[in-house]
Amino acid sequence: MGVVDRLSNIFKAKVNNAIDDMENPIELLDQKVRDMEKSLNDAKVSSAQILGNVHETEKKLQKAKAESSDFDEKVKLAVKAGNDDLAKRALAKKLEADKSVESLTKSYAEASQKAQAIKAKLKELEEEIDKTRNYRDEAAARYNNAEASKQVNEILSNVDAGSNKINLDDIERKIERKESLAEGLGDLQEDNSLDKEFEKLGELSLDDELAKYKTGSTTKAEAPSGNSAIDAELEKYKNQ
């Protein structure tokens, strides 16, 4: 096989596969049902003419039988009357009617047999259409379930446990970094609070010292002069 033939076969195979993927089996079944229904309608139209011919042949047969019976009575009357010429003419008509009866009986039998076969075929086609409709409904349910399962499987196949674990680990690390940052900011806030507390203590010490100075000024003003005042100041230095 040449390269061109091989490429041609590959191309045909790919085209056929693409067509198969595009084909919806339920749509194909719907089209099949429509085609079968059209065939049934066409068959009914065609068979209606045959069935009509059967009824027409039956009427002609009944008429020929009636003519044969009528001329048979006339032959008998002519013979009874002694009119042989009239009897012969009536007999010729009777024989002609009998030939028609024989021919029409054969035609009617054949037409009736054909009509019965057509009716059987029509009934068979109707049953086949009903069977195809039922199969179509069953196939549609199976096809829809298969499509739904396929979509679910495709979704599940895209959910890879390993990749999800990596993603979760990344998320966990990001959360931990955020938590560490928040804790660091909290520590800074605590340090600031501590500094502020010490600053407040410093402010209290200054206030106390100022109060001491104010108290000392008052004491000096009221303290007696002489060694007592000196002893008092010396005691302050010792207490420091």
UniProtKB/TrEMBL annotation:
Record flagged with keyword RNA-binding: no
Region described as Disordered: spans on this chain: 214-240
Compositionally biased residues, Polar residues: 215-228
The keyword Cell inner membrane is assigned to this record: no
Residues forming coiled coils: 26-74, 101-142
Pfam family of the protein (one): PspA_IM30
InterPro entries from the UniProt entry: PspA_VIPP1
Keywords attached to this entry: Coiled coil
Record family assignment: Belongs to the PspA/Vipp/IM30 family.
Name the UniProt record assigns to this protein: Phage shock protein A (PspA) family protein
Species annotation: Clostridium acidisoli DSM 12555
